Amino acid sequence: MSPNRANSGHVVALSGGVGGAKLATGLAAVLAPERLTIAVNTGDDFEHLGLTICPDIDSVTYALAGLNDPTRGWGVQDESWKALEMLGRLGEAQWFNLGDRDMAMHIARSWRLREGETLSQVTARLTGELGIAHAVVPMSDAPVRTEVLTDTDWLDFQTYFVAEQCKPIAREVRFLGTPGAAQAPQFAQALARDDLAAIVICPSNPYLSVDPILAVDGLRKALVAKGVPIIAVSPLVGGKALKGPLGKLLGELGKTCDNRAIAEHYAGLAGHFVIDQLDSDDAEDLRNSGLCVTVAQTIMHDADDRESLAREVLSAVGVEVV
Amino acid sequence: MSPNRANSGHVVALSGGVGGAKLATGLAAVLAPERLTIAVNTGDDFEHLGLTICPDIDSVTYALAGLNDPTRGWGVQDESWKALEMLGRLGEAQWFNLGDRDMAMHIARSWRLREGETLSQVTARLTGELGIAHAVVPMSDAPVRTEVLTDTDWLDFQTYFVAEQCKPIAREVRFLGTPGAAQAPQFAQALARDDLAAIVICPSNPYLSVDPILAVDGLRKALVAKGVPIIAVSPLVGGKALKGPLGKLLGELGKTCDNRAIAEHYAGLAGHFVIDQLDSDDAEDLRNSGLCVTVAQTIMHDADDRESLAREVLSAVGVEVV
């Protein structure tokens, strides 16, 4: 593969939910649709009230469609909660926040799945209907379910994350369904492209959002075997997780909450690393360990920030942008 | 059975949707919970977007819970339509109106059915959660689906009723699943009670709302065999159907649009008949055919009207009220 071909080639982004969705949106702003495939974690997916809910696919979809709620930080904008309130009156569970607009997504997905479509097909259909030109693909069409071992028991991800608000101490994370979950067809096809230029690991939780993707059959080996740059954007800013349980989790798993721990987690996989400007002191140490390090503003407040970070990331691995 | 026991005995009401729900609400206002069973048409039920929707059970439930929208005349009050709007953006069907609060009912019912509950169990659960003390029971736990033969083809009920707005000419009505649909357990138990005092046929469409109930296995014979008064409230007022396609349907089926046609439809079943005060001229002719006729105000604008009509109906068949 010549450098020139690689430079204008295809990019595969691995994304979890909100943080990943922001960078995915930035990448979509600077790469033509045929140059980007966003492969999304489905380990958070769960069945709730008979609906198949895919929180990370939804976060990426809402962000790309411009429908995400920037104030709340999750879910759909202009949202209301009448169905959820009524579900409560009907004696049904209310612990998982389901807005009325969001509910439509779960209803449409669930019934299309029951009609026999794969998660890939449903996702392509629904993102297409929302006018999203870039490919959003689940990591796998086979169900993978993340579970967290706490002091008392294994908890499914949403029980740990939403119902228990990440309060239990986490001892271990596992991904039910792996091995046995194949790469989704479009994901595999994107990775098999002759013009594959780079793989971007978005700033998502390495343990809870990226590891499930890496647990898909043969994926980690396949990524390394591609021989293209793999660049990870650290989810830490100023030595802390911007949101979510990453900081707490690192401690509970016996790691330090710093970029060294994140880099070690991706050792042997990502040779490129993007850290926030507040952590520029970490750069030398990381470079000494053999990584190519880019210091950038990784906090993405708005579209400009998202696009700017996407440009930095792609520039770091020599990929041309529009 | 002594007249005294009968007088304070149990009443079974057969109800379709909105009109039936109004009288059912009136009956519930004047009969203690242990004295009334409301058996509801399920021929209108259908599967839509993966949800099991039971329009008549919902109309009765919302009316009894005081949640019905009196202005719109159907559905839930304080309703919004965000999920439906989003379903449209997702390329899904919007022809059947699904409000956000209403959606919760369909979601709860559908997932409980998938979990293995019967429609009777789900209905008891959901009406109970809404504080409804009276028994609301489906006519059958087996799916019955009303279909209307038009000039072109058999249409399922909701396609005929909602999507086609009853515009096609109706030639015939049939109830898929019958024979073969047994009475729901609570319905059969209510009819088997020693203290059964009367059966009330609510002012619902005889062809589209009451006939499916009568098509339940053995029901028509069982009702007659009880030997208790059966009283039908005419759905016509001033020689016209208050709402819905009844008037048009009567013509298409070769009947006249008057109380004679309704009475003939229930011949051999209902010996008592309630007609509206605007149709008092019909009384003599109906009496001459051997019916016991009560003239009353059958339009129910408010709770007083509903209770008043319920009292007239029960009084006509010698049933005590509170």
Order of helices and strands of chain A: HEHEEEHHHHEEEHEHEHHEEEHHEHEH
CATH homology superfamily name of chain A: CofD-like domains
- Assign a percent range to the helix content of chain A: 25-40%
In percent terms, what proportion of residues of chain A is strand? 15-25%
- Kindly provide the name of the CATH class of chain A: Alpha Beta
What is the molecular shape of chain A?
Answer: globular
**Multimeric status of the protein:** homodimer
End-to-end separation of chain A in angstroms reads: 21 Å
Biggest sheet descriptor of chain A = 7 strands, parallel
Q: What's the arrangement of strands in the largest beta sheet of chain A? A: 5-2-1-9-10-13-14
List keywords for this structure.
homodimer, about 325 residues, alpha/beta, Rossmann fold, seven-stranded parallel beta sheet, three-stranded antiparallel beta sheet, about 40% helix, globular, disordered N terminus
